[in-house]
Model the fold of this input.
Amino acid sequence: MKFFQQAFLYDDSWSTVALAYLLRYPNPYASHILSCDVISRDITPAGTLRTTRLILKTGSLPRWAPQGMIARAESWVLEESEVDPLGKVMNCTTKNLDHVKVMRVEEHIQIRQADDGKTLQTTRAKFLSGFGWGLTKKIENYGLTKFKANLQRSREGFFIILDLIRQSRRQPMTMGAPSSFLVSHHILNDSDAKAPASHAAPRVGDSKDSTPEQPPRPATGGGAWSRISSWLRSR
Done:
């Protein structure tokens, strides 16, 4: 079994980060997400919002994988989240529902308000394979390496949604006019565009490093809406 842990610190408020996390799909860097559907949502007696979503992802196998290792490249993922608006804490757990004999991946995310008003996200993940045939450790190492490599790309997509929410909250409300964020996210949901073919991402820190990272500086030459517009024009 392999483990991963990392902390990340946002300058934004907890409510902004938690909302962005729940609305992170779709985005230009998540072309591997084929669908994301809410299958249940309720308010608990304690006043927390509990949501269960079913996510369909696609991926690729390494070259060394035996032929017929899995029947198809898609994988169903179950996401269970609970938001506590009073305690300003959100916990989210995701795990794959199929291909579990090849590898079971569980990811635990906690987003909570820090003492200084910033927001701390803690990510923990574990990778467990029961495939055997001398490939167990190799599969687990591949899962960990792939997870770390995709982390920065996932964060880039998340920051696009986060920036859209920032922009929408800075705009004055006009009666009867939709916010720019709602319009932008509606366009993303209606689009079947793919993310850019390449993206140079900084190297993610070691899996044992639990020191909170600082958010990257916004890209120059346009905000989130400009990046999304460019993405849509490339369709």
Observations:
- The two ends are 41 Å apart (CA to CA).
- The chain has four helices and seven strands.
